[in-house]
């Protein structure tokens, strides 16, 4: 005769563990919900100015002046785009900005990577001195007038690309971040390459740089955005409008934007606020298109270069 097994008492410890798992799961869900809400709020606060800028760029000045434009364009208007895009000087200055940004970024990255790699080596003679020289420039500068005299008079770089790309070619912050990254670079790889016969330059260009894509992409983004948005150096050292970057063009355009007439010579259309939105939108568009391609390197590059293990 087969008898059914007697019912066993529940394991109190097992029940408590299951209850703990449930409580932990609920706590995790609540934590994720709070995180999602916070992230959505941050995204809303961050994106609102940009969406508002786009709405103003396609809106009529009357609605903008009345404060009615928020997230949706009102009185759809493309006249300002036609005014700006039909100006040949705008395209000339736009091309100048690309040239200054590309050349300046290449120079800055060449100086930063080589300087940081040299400073990352503890056996470098005078290493402390060279680090101190770099850090000293973070706190003390020559001043505006001495810099102007040096660049415009002694170096003769007035109305020259070098007045824009050379003075700010080395950011000490970027240098220190990259130096910290190189200090964490595995020395075994460099020693193995040296045994195989590679010189110092060969190790740097064939081993170190290809394995440093994250921090290089991050520093490239920093330099490119800084050069793209720069306007004061060109405003200070350039007189020829054909050599202006687009930021100076937009600065002058906004300063002089009191009104314009339509193509038929009719009533003047006030576009002061609208032209600001249009010109700012056209200025930031290339950076917005560039960022997604290197965004995946951004966080990892900063973290790798900022934490010394």
From TrEMBL:
Transmembrane segments: 33-51, 98-117, 129-149, 161-182, 203-228, 275-294
Keywords: Cell membrane, Membrane, Transmembrane, Transmembrane helix, Transport
Keyword Transmembrane helix: yes
Protein's cellular compartments: Cell membrane
CDD domains: TM_PBP2
Bilayer topology term: Multi-pass membrane protein
PANTHER family xref list: ABC TRANSPORTER PERMEASE PROTEIN MG189-RELATED-RELATED, POLYGALACTURONAN_RHAMNOGALACTURONAN TRANSPORT SYSTEM PERMEASE PROTEIN YTCP
Family in the record: Belongs to the binding-protein-dependent transport system permease family.
Protein name: Carbohydrate ABC transporter permease
Species this chain originates from: Microbacterium ureisolvens
